[in-house]
Design brief:
Strand order of the largest sheet: 1-12-11-10-13-14
Number of domains: 3
Low-confidence stretches: none
Helix content: 25-40%
Number of strands: 14
CATH topology of the largest domain: Rossmann fold
Structural class: alpha/beta
Number of helices: 17
Strand content: 15-25%
Length: 442
């Protein structure tokens, strides 16, 4: 795309007032820009959560660069291999043989066989109609002591059906096989970052005498496999819903989706769904609500009327958080969101009526590469993309909700907002690090 940089760049197409924004997709999909904010996890980070597993990526050499660099940055190259698809493999139609013999060669050369192998096929395999069922049947026959998971590095799936992220969140549990159900065991699924122990969600589970399992707790492969014995899976990120539905069908585990949200009534409702499931009485959460309101008030005293920007990588429901902050006197000026989810509909409609001038910016629109979007006065950004686009050194550095949940999550988040507004950070140093919160990162 050629742009005349001698003239101011028009925001049209990359920015709109929320009152004029179409829901759920305010912007036309086209040529895209990828900002240098790298805190969100990619498929390599997520796959490494399965203890002792080995990842094998099969695609063209240029596509391998990013995942190789991620594994190198994590210091986990000993758990990572690649198979390069070349032109002759396409012309000769030997893709199945390439995968079977390539994976076999890798496994034979490893010092010891891993308990699980995550095989990542790519777009080319789907374009060519590669018989993946045959591939996995042969690999499982050759290596009966190894569990194989079919995973996908397939960007052509981004715009229809399940997204690559949703598929990865499902496939990371695909190795679980039925076990005798333990009615005193509960899983939290779909998270890369552990849920805060102080949250009402975790405290309710533990104080009721239940064992809590989470892939982020697993240190051994056997611990991971024992997640199959839990009676219920709790998810709270929308991206994890397909995984919960898959496990409910495969293992008979009940799935409770208790979404991460910011409205007091919805938080109470979600927690009481859990209480009902555990046989506990319904609660009003009066003290917890008071603590959250007090924390919001204290944060407002520090931040004042400074403009606040929120991006979708920080929390899954940016409109919900924006509404909570606006209701409590904060000056939320911008949302950085390429598209909204249905979970944000109610709060989006509220903002249209009560904060119609709020701006919604795309993050992937090509104009965002050159648009003058800097917020000149001191402002607060929640999320790395918001910090990058506003060039604010005062930002809350979290992804995917940061493990915060419920009323306790609001208290924790407002504490981070106060800290961020007082203590500036170097944007470049922070946002260039991949996989924020990944324990393996140096």
């Amino acid at each position: 795309m050629l742009v005349n940089l001698s003239k101011p760049i028009d925001e049209t197409g990359a920015c709109t007032a929320i009152k004029d924004a179409a829901f759920p997709a305010p912007f036309v999909s086209g040529l895209e820009y990828n900002s240098p904010a790298r805190g969100t996890w990619n498929i390599v980070h997520v796959g490494m959560l399965i203890p002792k597993s080995h990842q094998i990526y099969i695609c063209a050499a240029n596509c391998l660069r990013g995942v190789v660099l991620t594994a190198a940055e994590m210091g986990t190259l000993d758990r990572f291999s690649t198979i390069t698809v070349q032109e002759n493999n396409v012309l000769e139609g030997d893709m199945e043989e390439l995968i079977i013999e390539g994976v076999s060669d890798i496994l034979e050369k490893l010092p010891q066989k891993p308990p699980a192998v995550l095989v990542f096929t790519a777009c080319i395999h789907h374009f060519m109609g590669c018989d993946l069922e045959l591939v996995y049947n042969e690999l499982r026959k050759r290596y009966p002591g190894v569990d194989f998971a079919d995973c996908y590095m397939n960007p052509i799936m981004r715009k229809s059906g399940l997204t690559p992220d949703q598929i990865m969140k499902r496939q990371m549990y695909s190795l679980l096989e039925p076990l005798e159900i333990n009615k005193k065991s509960i899983n939290i699924i779909g998270n890369n970052i552990s849920t805060d122990e102080s949250s009402e969600l975790v405290r309710t589970i533990r104080e009721s005498g239940y064992e809590l399992k989470d892939i982020t707790f697993c240190n051994t492969y056997d611990e991971y496999l024992k997640m199959a014995e839990s009676h219920v899976n709790i998810s709270y990120l929308p991206i994890a819903i397909p995984g919960g539905e898959y496990l409910q069908e495969k293992l008979g585990q009940k799935h409770l989706h208790l979404p991460l949200c910011y409205g007091f009534d919805e938080i109470s409702g979600n927690l009481n769904i859990l209480n009902e499931y555990l046989g506990l009485p319904k609660k009003e959460y009066t003290e917890e609500k008071s603590a959250a309101l007090k924390a919001l008030k204290e944060a407002k005293e520090v931040i004042g009327d400074a403009k606040i920007s929120i991006d979708y990588t920080a929390i899954p429901r940016p409109a919900g958080l924006a509404r909570l902050l606006v209701e409590n006197g904060f000056n939320v000026d911008r949302l950085y969101v390429d598209s909204f989810t249905e979970w944000d509909r109610k709060d989006f409609d509220w903002l249209v009526k009560n904060k119609p001038e709020m701006k919604v910016y795309a993050t992937a629109h090509a104009k965002m590469r050159v648009l003058d979007r800097k917020c000149c006065e001191k402002s607060l950004a929640i999320g790395q993309k918001a910090a990058y686009f506003t060039e604010s050194e005062y930002f809350v550095n979290i992804v995917e909700g940061g493990g915060m949940y419920g009323f306790d999550g609001i208290v924790r988040l407002t504490g981070l907002m106060k800290e961020a507004f007082i203590c500036p950070k170097n944007i470049q140093d922070h946002i260039k690090m991949k996989g924020l919160g990944c324990d393996c990162l140096l």
